[in-house]
Amino acid sequence: MSTRDHLGRPVVAVTGIGLVTPLGLGVAESWAGLLAGRSGIRRITRFPTEHLKTTIAGQVDLPEDAAGEPLLSPARVERMAAMAAEEAIAGAGIGEAGRFPGPLCLGMPPVEVEWPHRLALARQVEGAPIRYPALIEAATGRTALFEGCLFGGVGERLADRFGTRGAPVAITTACATGASAIQLGVEAIRRGEAEAALCIGAEGSVQPESLIRFSLLSALSTRNEDPAKASRPFEKTREGFVMSEGAAALVLESLESARARGATVLGLVLGCGERADSFHRTRSNPDGGAIIGAMRAAIADAGLEPEGIDYVNAHGTGTPENDKMETLGMRAVFGEACPPISSNKSMIGHTLSAAGAIEAVFSLLTIRDGRLPPTINHETPDPAIPLDVVPNAAREATVRRVLSNSFGFGGQNVCLVLGAAP
């Protein structure tokens, strides 16, 4: 295979992958759980859930959680991102200790002062009522608090830890964030600005405020009585997504660079497509233009026609709106000959900022092992969704190219085409 693609750009190879999901810490455990159709959704134990409409999530239990108070979101994002990156870099065998030979492209959620922070500050304020000026005064000089909740701070600390080159880029594009981070790395390599990139998507927002906000948008499942059955993408009785967390890291390299150092190539990132519609804060434009456009753009960027896609790793959140729109997009792009499509979120929930990166890793593993992960909890087919959703059990298949979809709130859509190693 040539080291240049159909447009003369460097072919982008994946030489390392790392995962942290509710199914396990590491690629092997997460992938085995996914193929087994095991759910990582359970009751929330990290904080009180009395009086909340939704009391389930895809929690990741970190070693630090057992040792004391659970980590708050910024620290949790950083910890899971580091764990995934360590696995990916070790697998790629790239760079000297602490010196990664390329930039860091980090996809992560917005970070903010959380309620444990606020309550700690409030306890320092004498008298009542407690007002914001008093809280601000109590926070003055708390550099650790400021740096912990500074959006770019997580990326800076990860860049220092792994010795990446140049200024780290931290980005958030809603549920497309993880895929956007990969796209940034791909574009840097294609432009010749880097021979390698460390791309990470991480999410740690299973916390009260995020849960309440999504609940107020009527976006979450309230099937609390049986957590493992709550996430039901493409199924007739679906009624919302399940919040989750985790991280994935990919080491990207030009194929030429990977071959020169004798690296094992796990797969290729063949194409990226991005479209936005700015229609509504949660809903897609009913014409599906941005979703359809992102899929078509990714396939064209890979130099393929739709029939060249063997499987689609769905965005598949399990909300009535998303699954309807993804079906519309699939039919528009592939016509009557839609390839199989399944949703990892049926087992791990919606990992939000990490989803695009986690699902890209799962797409590469699908190609490697020739196994399509199932869409579990598919009990009552929806007649409005005439797709092969690989219901309930994994399936053997020959897979050379996968389209991985990420459709975010606010109309931010990114699709990736992953291909087999040459």
UniProtKB/TrEMBL annotation:
InterPro entries on file: Beta-ketoacyl_synthase, Ketoacyl_synth_C, Ketoacyl_synth_N, PKS_Beta-ketoAc_synthase_dom, Thiolase-like
Entry keyword annotation includes Repeat: no
Organism: Roseicella aquatilis
GO biological process, one term: fatty acid biosynthetic process
SMART domains for the chain: PKS_KS
Gene Ontology cellular component annotations, sorted alphabetically: cytosol
Keywords from the UniProt entry: Membrane, Transferase, Transmembrane, Transmembrane helix
Segments crossing the lipid bilayer: 12-36
PANTHER family, A to Z: 3-OXOACYL-[ACYL-CARRIER-PROTEIN] SYNTHASE, MITOCHONDRIAL (PTHR11712:SF336), POLYKETIDE SYNTHASE-RELATED (PTHR11712)
Organism lineage: Bacteria, Pseudomonadati, Pseudomonadota, Alphaproteobacteria, Acetobacterales
GO molecular function, one term: 3-oxoacyl-[acyl-carrier-protein] synthase activity
Recorded metabolic or biological pathway in which this protein acts: Lipid metabolism; fatty acid biosynthesis
Family of the protein in this entry: Belongs to the thiolase-like superfamily. Beta-ketoacyl-ACP synthases family.
Record Pfam families: ketoacyl-synt (PF00109), Ketoacyl-synt_C (PF02801)
Protein name: Beta-ketoacyl-ACP synthase
Domain annotation Ketosynthase family 3 (KS3): ranges: 9-420
